[in-house]
Amino acid sequence: MCRPSRQQRFSYNGHERKHALKYQSVITPDGIVRHLHGPVPGTRHDAFLLATSTLRDEMRALPTSGSTRYIIYGDPAYSRNDCIISSFQGSTLNDDQLTFSKRMSKVRVSVEWVFGDVVRHWAFTDFVKKQKLHLQA
What we know:
This is DDE Tnp4 domain-containing protein. Keywords: Metal-binding. One of its GO terms (molecular function) is metal ion binding. It is a single chain. The chain has 137 residues and is an alpha+beta fold. The chain has one domain. It has three helices and six strands. A hairpin with a 4-residue loop joins strand 1 and strand 2. The protein starts with 11 loop residues before the first strand and ends in a 16-residue tail after the last helix. The model has no long low-confidence stretch (mean pLDDT 82).
């Protein structure tokens, strides 16, 4: 396999051996894309997406009622903060942590369905050969 050209290195993820652009999205329980940020090069970590997006500011600006506030359940790659929680990781989890992680993993499946719908309706987004930037006419 040849090394990617200079411009191709921008989006080439050597670990997965493919070109990629990453997006961050928030999907509501009814399947609506509420927030979309990107693209960023596939070489960047998910935490970079969060740091460069306006998501945390948008979440903090939402109205609260007493102790009720909105929280996003996110991928474990995101660190926990006042706006995002994720599943518990590790081999020494207590019963409550295990139960929480199992229940919430089912919720994440519905988010993946939305991504599947995008690929189904716009198949070119999943065509790896088309993800080589600066080569298309």
